[in-house]
Amino acid sequence: MAMTSPTSQPSDFWHRIQAIDRRVLYVLLLVVIILPLFVPIRLPMVTMPSTQKLYQAIESIPEGGFVIVSATWSGGTRAENMPQTEAILRHLMKRRLRVAVFSFDQQGSQFSYNIASRLAKEYNYEYGKDWVHWGFRPIVGVVMKSLVRDIPGTFTTDRDGKPTKDMEVMKGIRDIKDVDAIVEIAASGIYMDWIGLVVGANPNLKFGFCPTAVMAPETYPYMDSGQIVGIMEGMRGAAEYEQLIRATGLATKGMGSISLAHVLIMLLIIIGNIGYIATRARGR
Amino acid sequence: MLEPIVRFFSAKPPAVLPYYVAGAVIFSILVILLLINLPSRMRKPLIAIVTFLAGLFYAAEFFLPIDRATNKNVLTDYLVSASKLGSLLGGMTLTLGILSLLRVHGRNIARLRAGWYNSLALLVAMVSMVVFGLMDKYGANASAKKVFNVLFEGMLINMDATMFSLIAFYIVSASYRAFRIRSIEATILMVTAFLVMLGQVPVGNAMTDWLPREGFFASLRVENIKQWILSQVNAAALRAIAFGLGVGGLAISLRIWLSLERGAYFEKEI
Looking at CA atoms only, how far is residue A249 from chain B in angstroms? Predict the structure, then answer.
């Protein structure tokens, strides 16, 4: 097996384990990602407080409450954001809450519409009465500033251009004070805009955030401050949420792949460092 | 005072809509021509005035006291119109971007420069998306809808996912080659990274699953160590960074709003 790159000119075993051919690494990664999808691995999973808090915040909304779900993500982060969107919408529909979905991303608009339409059939949600899709909305700051004061004026039409003001789902919704919760599913720092422009305008508003795993660490200070009620961290968070709502989905199935990929990365770093330490020790 | 503007931007009946669209296009072209032909010495003051007025509207709307009964101040009702104006400006910048792309890549194709076929692919993809997207939105042609679905859901979304997925492979290769414990700091970083990574996945949970879930020893479970690192150590550092960024952002915003900013772009001749 080709274990060395042609340019590194390895002299012995310790050098060689520091320079495994990148193609070997790619194949290994591919195998550890694909294998668990066919041979599921059952592992214990503990629900993190951040996920639990988001779940409880949604649970605390009275039946018929109004929740806005913003799906600002695209195909690039589908693996993480799609299970998150599905888990949140499933929970909202299970709880018979009124749902308004929209997106600041064109792809996210299409994705979220597809997911919500599918789940609406499953939970007998009628479009216009129980849920609505406001479509793609460009220019984040302007839309947020505007929706704080006038929701029907900001979202005058749905994604198909139909007027929203007479829809039953919008009944009694005038401004941000009539909204019980906002859940943002995103692969960006858009939560800062929500916190800065919207969250403070309604002290009772629950703002949940579902970022990709790599984004999650930077959001912790805002959960501590209470500005974010709970965080669903990447695919792991979605898998925990699926456990909480008792609906095994994409995230739970993907946890085996994520686990093995993490282990592979750690093993490779350890191997590389063993080689590095041994080489350095010999050089002294 | 602003009422006529609000009425002008309100929804129009379908019968008169084409006239409004045509009027808007002609007006936009005239404005762009006017701006292009404006003497150089007048451009910067114009930009400064428009920037200041736009910023002033939002600042005044935010700071002016509201009437308790209506929950509004004198500018609140114009926020929606301002949001529409913002969308219009976004649309105009998009047009400029498209024109720029057409010019640059059109030249590449016309002069058969190296890699001209990439430019051709870009323009064909762009035009196809626009044409079939509009046909899907406004037409009743089932074939156009199918083609658009293939382009958008079948190709664009999957290519986006593919591009992003490639990062995983590069991360594996880069972390294996670059992550060496050359110092105490690097060692602390690696141990912390390992604990967070293990705490993030079920296989890490399984490693310390034999420890009790409650009581003192529960804090040694890897997911709890990870939680402590993220919510205490990491959060404290991030708060400091966010505070610095906030103060810096405020200063920069003020400088841009008042056209005081200097530097490469702002001092450029326009």
Answer: 16
Tell me which residue of A283, A201, A249, A263 sits closest to A83, measured CA to CA: A249
Give residue A106's Cα distance to chain centre. 17
Residue B9 touches chain A, beta carbons under 8 Å: no
Q: Is residue A31 part of a domain?
A: no
Nearest CA in chain B to A51: B227
Task: Give B176's contacts in chain A (Cβ within 8 Å).
Answer: 20, 25, 265, 268-269, 271-272
> How many domains does chain A divide into?
1
Residue A274 located in a structural domain: no
Residue by residue, DSSP assigns B173-233 as: HHHHHH----SHHHHHHHHHHHHHHHHHSHHHHHHTTTS-SSSGGGGGSHHHHHHHIIIII
How are strands ordered across the β-sheet holding A98-103?
A131-136, A98-103, A66-72, A181-186, A206-211, A230-231
* Residue B1 banded pLDDT, cuts 50, 70, 90: low
Alpha carbon distance B257, B251 (integer Å): 10
Question: Tens digits of per-residue pLDDT, B209-229?
Answer: 899 988 889 999 999 999 999
Range of the domain at A202: 49-255
- Asked, for residue A28, whether it belongs to a domain, the answer is no
> Residue A268 domain-assigned?
no
Q: Which residues of chain A neighbour B209 with C-beta distances below 8 Å?
A: 44
Neighboring chain A residues of B181 at a CB cutoff of 8 Å? 273, 276-277
- Strand pairing class (A206-211; A98-103): unpaired
**pLDDT of amino acid B265:** 66
Distance CA A87, CA A69 (A): 12
**Is B207 in contact with B222 (CB distance < 8 Å)?**
yes
Res B26 pLDDT > 60: yes
Q: Does B205 touch chain A (CB under 8 A)?
A: yes
What local confidence, expressed as pLDDT, does residue B7 receive? 75
- Per-residue pLDDT tens for B219-262? 999 999 999 999 899 989 999 998 999 999 999 999 999 988 88
Q: 3-class DSSP state for residue A103? A: strand
Give the three-class secondary structure for A206. Answer: strand
Q: Which amino acid is at B169?
A: F
Residue ranges covered by each domain of chain B: 3-113, 128-176, 179-257
Q: Which residues of B touch A145 (CB under 8 A)?
A: 58, 79, 83
**CB contacts < 8 A (A, B):** 158
The C-alpha atoms of residue B264 and residue B196 are separated, in whole angstroms, by: 41
Report mean pLDDT in 10-residue bins for chain A, 284 residues.
47 87 95 91 87 97 96 93 97 97 94 96 96 92 87 92 92 94 94 93 95 92 93 95 92 91 94 93 79
Report CB contact under 8 Å: A236, B201.
yes
- Nearest CA among B175, B180, B177, B172 for reference residue A19: B177
**Mind listing the pLDDT tens digit for each residue in B133-172?**
888 878 777 888 889 889 988 899 899 989 989 999 999 9
